Amino acid sequence: MEKRIVFATGNQDKMKEIRMILEDLGIPVYSMKEAGVNIEIVEDGTSFEENAEIKARAVSRVLKNDIVLADDSGLEIDYLDKAPGIYSARFAGEDTSYDVKNRIFLDRLEGVPEEERTARFVCAVAAVFPDGTAKTVRGTIEGRIAHEILGENGFGYDPIFYVPEYGCTTGEMSPELKNKLSHRGIALRAMRKILEEKYGKEAL
């Protein structure tokens, strides 16, 4: 049976990033929907790592022969005690647009000086292998909350996440640059190493 990776997400923007980062791995990457899995997953973990593994295990129980990956990612704003954190996707309701969510955080940080606007994107990626073992890695990117919504690229909180070294938000970055720097890119490349070590580059 052909080896394949199934990613426990239905988010097409996220799948686009994942495929770009894993594209030359030599193993096809499917979303759970493309793999025919349509289940509700309750993310009740207390950390990004726990939630990522919960998602991966839920899909792995259905697709026992596949390598199942899942991520849990979010924005931590230091001034707001690291909110929204693990609730980033659910903040203000899952169906609320990110334009609205981004505006809420800009309003909450109105008048807050530059040095107190520190924030980071965090991404945990979990893999559950056909033998039932699991591995989890974490990637982070440090930055600040911008003073306005900037950029049409990316998705989610990208237009308000400003990276001082590059003088722009991740929403203004090209997909190639963002994938190189991003929390998800860092975590996926770390997971890629684990996959190569476990299966060998040739086997993949």
TrEMBL record:
Binding-site positions, Mg(2+): 72
Active site: 72 (proton acceptor)
GO BP terms, alphabetized: nucleotide metabolic process; purine nucleoside triphosphate catabolic process
Functional summary from the UniProt entry: Pyrophosphatase that catalyzes the hydrolysis of nucleoside triphosphates to their monophosphate derivatives, with a high preference for the non-canonical purine nucleotides XTP (xanthosine triphosphate), dITP (deoxyinosine triphosphate) and ITP. Seems to function as a house-cleaning enzyme that removes non-canonical purine nucleotides from the nucleotide pool, thus preventing their incorporation into DNA/RNA and avoiding chromosomal lesions.
PANTHER family with a match to the protein in the record: INOSINE TRIPHOSPHATE PYROPHOSPHATASE, INOSINE TRIPHOSPHATE PYROPHOSPHATASE/HAM1 PROTEIN
Quaternary structure note: Homodimer.
Protein name in the entry: dITP/XTP pyrophosphatase
